[in-house]
Amino acid sequence: MRSAPLLLALALALLAVAGPSPAMARRHKGEEEKACDKGWEGGGECSGSRFCCNDTITDYFKVYQFEDLFAKRNDPTAHAAGFWDYKAFITAAALFEPRGFGTTGGKEVGMREVAAFLGHVGAKTSCGYGVATGGPLAWGLCYNHEMSPSQSYCDNSNELYPCVEGVEYYGRGALPVYWNYNYGIIGEGIKQDLLNHPELLEQNATLAFEAAIWRWMTPMKRRQPSAHDVFVGNWKPTKNDTLSKRYPGFGATMNILYGDLSCGQGSIDSMNVIVSHYRHYLDLMGVGSENAGDNLDCADQLPFNPSSKSLDS
Ligand SMILES: *[C@@H]1O[C@H](CO)[C@@H](O)[C@H](O)[C@H]1NC(C)=O
Ligand SMILES: *[C@@H]1O[C@H](CO)[C@@H](O)[C@H](O)[C@H]1NC(C)=O
Ligand SMILES: *[C@@H]1O[C@H](CO)[C@@H](O)[C@H](O)[C@H]1NC(C)=O
């Protein structure tokens, strides 16, 4: 058993030399499975992942679709024109595909997950308003940082991730990150020193997407699910969840990421705008907003994490 990883590495090395072949490689659990010989991004990244041979995001989400979703992001009036692109998203996403991001449950679930994740991103980075050309939903990825921070977002009571002098922790990135402690946690997650260098999230679009996908994939508290888990069906609600009206679906992703800032308050704008982006992206991707899934909103859900310290400001 101890030599299994070595054998696998050897098999992959041989594949790389010999090119695609129907070679069999022995996997961890001992079952025979076809070695993945399709163009999984990052090549060896996929070895040992149970998502290995499934469709990757580039199989079903192409550059023209990214351009459709974020049609106005390079408009001269957009605030981050020239910053965001497809390649940055795909490069970041490839790091999480072996863990199931966009690769769980087949192509349709994958497309829905990409629409859901990007729906959050679009809503949180939009500068669209009622009369904007192209409609309010065409302006996702308009920003890469908060324009006029209303406060310093430094919590000096946090000993684990103390504020660094002269560094500011206003909102930055694809799912904007606020506060020293959030930069600290997320920086550890993506192995970047964001506590000292939060500006990386407004200087490097790949890192901005990486931070956002890390948040999507990672439970914020022990014994809680991630947004990914509640969306793709990995999560089974407990009795307490059911009593709190938390069910699997898009609604619960908002609950995890924003808690009572968006959820449990009826049909409020800060919730509806995220749902609208998700549904719009499903339509643009050809999945159709009628396939948005059950439990689309969180109007009646009690928050997983009652506020003030939720990741959004
Ligand atoms: C891979 O995709 C198939 C359908 O294409 C799906 O049934 C299966 O659950 C997927 N595997 C994983 C690990 O999600
Ligand atoms: C962005 O960060 C990634 C990951 O550290 C790095 O590989 C890439 O070169 C950076 N891009 C730019 C434009 O600095
Ligand atoms: C059940 O949910 C309520 C409200 O969300 C929460 O205050 C309580 O701690 C939860 N109980 C358990 C055992 O998780």
From TrEMBL:
**What EC number(s) does this enzyme carry?**
3.2.1.14
Signal sequence segment: 1-25
Annotated GO biological process? cell wall macromolecule catabolic process; chitin catabolic process; polysaccharide catabolic process
Q: Is GTP-binding set as a keyword in this record?
A: no
Tell me the disulfide pairings in this chain.
Answer: 154-163, 263-298
Q: Name one GO molecular function term.
A: endochitinase activity
Q: Which reaction does it catalyse?
A: Random endo-hydrolysis of N-acetyl-beta-D-glucosaminide (1->4)-beta-linkages in chitin and chitodextrins
The UniProt keyword set, sorted, is: Carbohydrate metabolism, Disulfide bond, Glycosidase, Hydrolase, Polysaccharide degradation, Signal
Q: Which Pfam families match?
A: Glyco_hydro_19 (PF00182)
Q: Where is the Glycoside hydrolase family 19 catalytic domain?
A: 65-298
Question: Which EC class, in a word?
Answer: hydrolase
UniProt-recorded name of the protein: chitinase
Q: What is the lineage of its organism?
A: Eukaryota, Viridiplantae, Streptophyta, Embryophyta, Tracheophyta
